[in-house]
Amino acid sequence: MLPSKASRRPLSKQDARRSFIELTRQASMGHTSAPTTGGGWLSIDTPLHEKSTDNDDDDGDDLGSRARSHDPPSLGMRAKSNVRIGSLDLYAAFAVFGYYLVTFETLVVSFNTVLATSAYYYIDTHTDAVFNYNLSWTLVTFAIVSPIIMQTQQAYNRRENALLLVAETKALMLNVYVAHHQWIAPAKQACVPTTLLTRTRLLVRGIMYDLCELVSLPNVTRGRHRFTSTGVRESQAQQAQQQTLRSRLAVGLEQLHGQVRDLKCHGLSEGEASRLYQYLWMIHSRVLSLINIKMYRTPQATRSFTKVLVHILPFFYGPYYVNVASGDGSSNRTNFAFALAFAILTSLMMIGILNAQEALEDPFSGDGLDVVHMESMFDRLEEDMAAMNDGAI
């Protein structure tokens, strides 16, 4: 007997999603942490249309209603939305601008700029000395701007690598935990003691949170931690804590190897055990890579040279700002207020970009807006394991 037209037709998006929600809900029944009613597990299904019938006319009506629901908004609605979103984005941009400028170094650079520009302008206008020259900015481009751009790109790449490593570590840890539920034949699954599953879950959580604590420690790799007595003491005080966390991570990973050995005694095949050992090696490799990203940064010498040059630049480019104010004495001139404002703006742009780059140097610190939020990412891992616990899968 040939299958009916309805059975040959693939499920619609709404029906497929509804079926998946029902399937996962049934798999999670009986587990207290998995919402199954009310505003929880099924609430995400509310935007879906009612299940369509098998007749073609109803399908046509459903397609028509979906097409109408995706009609583009009117011009007035788009304009209103653009104004609202644009205003919020502009406000956020100024907020971020101020966030990275409110530093002690910004105050120092601004003071140097005002002092140097005012002094050169006074000397040029009230003495016989001439400090009025249209200097080239080529040196600034090569000595300051280019290194800052390069360092920012390197720091951003390290952050992206850290995000990838964290995602891979979470996925591998989750698969190690899933192996306790799924990789053993159903006939032997009942023989796996609950304590083995609980211990594995505890080890996974402990490794993740110790790793989170280790990479979230205050940064002790700046220049002050090598060339100042206060910085050296700060670095030495953290060594013991780092060593304790590293040792616990090593022991935890070793214990996970023991868990695989115990699984073999309860029915895990040699091939699957070999795959789990490979997963554990990959986890260890990624943990060490994350620690290295924490401990090593972009070249210290380049960062120090750039910072020093940004601070002393106003004392060498003061004559340029005097030229902006006075021109050649008769034309192409503005005034001192504009020249001073332009000088301050130039210094703020450079120190702001430098501050943003330094905030990216440690992708795990809580100082920047673009850091990796390790604890929240690992909290999600615990939620995933909870959804799989007690036979949820």
3D structure, described in words:
- This protein has 393 residues and is mostly helical.
- Among the domains are: 90-131 and 301-361, no CATH class; 157-297, Up-down Bundle (Four Helix Bundle (Hemerythrin (Met), subunit A)), CATH 1.20.120.
- The protein contains 14 helices and no strands.
- It has helices spanning 5-8, 13-27, 56-69, 75-101, 104-126, 138-182, 186-189, 194-215, 224-227, 229-265, 270-295, 300-326, 336-361, 374-388.
- α5 (104-126) runs antiparallel to α13 (336-361).
- The radius of gyration is 31 Å and the shape is elongated.
- The two termini are 36 Å apart.
- Residues 30-56 have low confidence and may be disordered.
- Keywords: Membrane, Transmembrane, Transmembrane helix.
The H/E string reads: HHHHHHHHHHHHHH
Shape call: elongated
Question: For this structure, what is the CATH class of the domain at 157-297?
Answer: Mainly Alpha
Mean pLDDT: 82
Report the sheet with the most strands, covering strand number, pairing sense and barrel closure.
none
Distance between the termini: 36 Å
Helix content: over 70%
The CATH architecture classification of the domain at 157-297 is Up-down Bundle
Keywords: Membrane, Transmembrane, Transmembrane helix
Transmembrane segments: 88-111, 131-150, 304-322, 334-354
Region (Disordered): 22-76
Biased composition (Polar residues): 25-36
